[in-house]
Amino acid sequence: MADQPNVAQPTAKYRADYTAPDFTITDIDLVFDLQDTATRVVAVSQVKQQTQGVTSLELDGDDLVLRRLEINGESWPHYEETAEGLLIRQLPEAFELTIETEINPEANTALEGLYKSGGGFCTQCEAEGFRRITFYQDRPDVLARFTTKVIADKAKYPYLLSNGNKVASGELDNGRHWVQWQDPYPKPCYLFALVAGDFDVLRDNYKTVSGRDVALEIFVDKGNLDRAEHAMQSLINSMKWDEERFGLEYDLDIYMVVAVDFFNMGAMENKGLNIFNSKYVLANPATATDTDYLGIEAVIGHEYFHNWTGNRITCRDWFQLSLKEGLTVFRDQEFSSDLGSRPVNRINNVRVMRGPQFAEDRGPMSHPIRPEKVIEMNNFYTLTVYEKGSEVIRMMHTLLGEAGFQAGMKLYVERHDGTAATCDDFVLAMEEASGVDLSQFRLWYSQSGTPLVKVSTEYDADAKRYLVTVQQHTAPTAGQADKQPLHIPFDIELYDSKGQVIELQRNGEKIHHVLNVTESEQTFEFDQVHEQPVISMLREFSAPVVLEHDYSDQELVFLMTHARNEFARWDAGQMLLAKYIRSNVAAVQAGEEVVFPETVVDAFRGALLDEKLDPAFIAEMLTLPSENEVAGWYDLVDVDAIHAVLGQLEMLLATELEDELTAIYHSLKQTSYSIEHGAIAKRALRNRCLAYLALTAQGEKLVSAQYEAADNMTDTMAAMSAANEAQLACREWQMADFSDKWTHDGLVMDKWFILQGKNPAANALDNVRETMQHPAFSLKNPNRTRSLVASFCANNPVRFHAKDGSGYRFLTEILTALNTSNPQLASRLIEPFLKYRLYDEERQALMRAELEKLAGLDNLARDLFEKVEKALEQ
Ligand code: B3K
Ligand code: ZN
């Protein structure tokens, strides 16, 4: 952006530039005197030189007022404040550093560092928020033992919490009190946490496999105790699961979870004191949907699993983020799959990969799971680092098998416990423990983009031979032009015409069903194949790639019914849908009719009526890909045509299958609510049926009746979203009724805000603007903002991409406001703009103009700067 002189250039960091710290900090003793606008923080650190001869120490600091600086108890004049923090000079080899800072938690709307949420204080330090509390070496490879004393008004803040064990407490004059905490495990400062407030506490306990008694405490806003039980049960399940599946046990006597309303992400794994977005803690049947319940289980698990993969073994530098995140996502996915439905979990994870992650790979922020260059670290908590990172771990699991993988985990933990490690360390442990060669596989860490895998097959009836030719190609991505072939575990199965599995063999030797694809083009040969087989490929989505193969409808219908694993059956259904979505998008663009053959409808009818299948799985079978996922298939996206085709296909399925959908809808009615998986599955299918039936003549009646009869939020929301999508007349009174009932509860109102954002009506944007005046809405609260604004901008493509540019101007207004108050949130919301190159010329020009407006802001935050700059770059 050379033509944007008013944009200050924030500096980038490169992975290749890593150097170990010149000093380390072994212990830090913190005292917080909490006041809303002027909190005092005294930090006493024991510092040791690591590089001989280096006598200056650079400390990171942001938005701090320095009140005192001492070395070994003496005032120290040899320092200067810099743009990045403090530079202290003429230091001895080992010393005690005392720093007193003053901070303003109330003014902290960025929700990073120490801030106020509701009536209480809380912290968020990952990635680089500790530097907003005190001057420190704010980097993950400096591991110190933390002692923390918190002082605050006793009436307002009866609970004063920090990491580790409570070691002392006392009363002070003028109504204040204090508590001191000590964490025995050395940790990087991003895992530091402090909470002060008044809460209701749900208590339980857990005895670990080796007999440690752990007190479990969940802190929620007063009055919310009845919404914490599922989180507690999920925590207990996580602790048990990690012992059983990974042999990993909890290591402190207390585990605390605090739910707060103002939080930029889902949750944070601070040692012994997790801080959670209340969305991932609070649930009861009246306020939360089944999806919310499952989300709580997954996030509680995820943060708990970080205790080993993240906390006991942390990251050497932030470029290694996937070391802890990819691995921990893999662990939480396995946890959810072991406790619930494995196929349904896999399907939903794959949807995230094929939709938003593949889209990220194609955009200007495309990066490998281990990025090479970062301006603002918070911008790299991405689907690529997390979800693709997890797929990379999963591929190793596929290549090594469960036993080999667990041997690798064991070695990794033995070698690196208590240290800050790298992704290479992890792969090396996996390789050495299993004997599987991962040398080419390592490329997944450094190469970005989604490989395209094209497969062609050939059957030689005389020789009874079957040939499978696999080609891989990764197109250039932003910032990375040259690509090499990757090591792709490619899981296949062959079926005969009766649906029996054909054993894979060649020259009398068995061949494993996971093929090692390592070259740009490779042919695999199988013999003793007695008839033309049907091939199932990329089973379980064995690698994060796009598969291209010229399947006939007949083959796909065959796989939908005969493939042995459910994921493959679902995937065949998706491929069949994809074929007709593509051909119909072309038809609509050419002004022709939408065509959807009877045989395809019948295949979906078969799935719907298959009593052997899990109802939750059938619901997935009958779910079309989202408009965004379909958009990802095109270099030039036609939002209107995609919307029209998906709408018409849904209408067609609804009309053709109306009798079956109606029968199943009524047969799945339950008399009481439970969150047991069988019950969730039945609701999932029943509500999927309702979404289709809403499009038929009975829609108004069924949807109204369900809303009125619903005794749980899942059924209420299913009715409301069906009414919203189908634009039924009952939508209006339902929305009004819901808002009357829940205005006092922002978390519940988020569901209503989402529906306003996704409203397909032509005046959706006017409604969204009006909704911003709703008493429950606030741009200061990230959950509210995401619910309304992100659902409009990211999940209502037809309205957001209105040709008059009104949606684009709206997003710029929001981003401009958030740029100063909460840049991290702004940076999440800007995503739809980053894809502007995929739209027609007029829309491109309009979006580009908005990006340029943002680039021209005087005070553009580095979070937005990094994305805007990359988006505008050619
Ligand atoms: N580690 C945190 C995410 C921190 C995000 C910082 N912007 C939550 C998690 O992944 O578990
Ligand atoms: Zn995580």
TrEMBL record:
Origin: domain of life: Bacteria
Cofactor(s) for this UniProt protein: Zn(2+)
Domain (Peptidase M1 membrane alanine aminopeptidase) ranges: 231-441
GO molecular function: alanyl aminopeptidase activity; metallopeptidase activity; zinc ion binding
Start and end residues of each Peptidase M1 alanyl aminopeptidase C-terminal domain: 553-873
NCBIfam families on file: pepN_proteo
Protein name: Aminopeptidase N
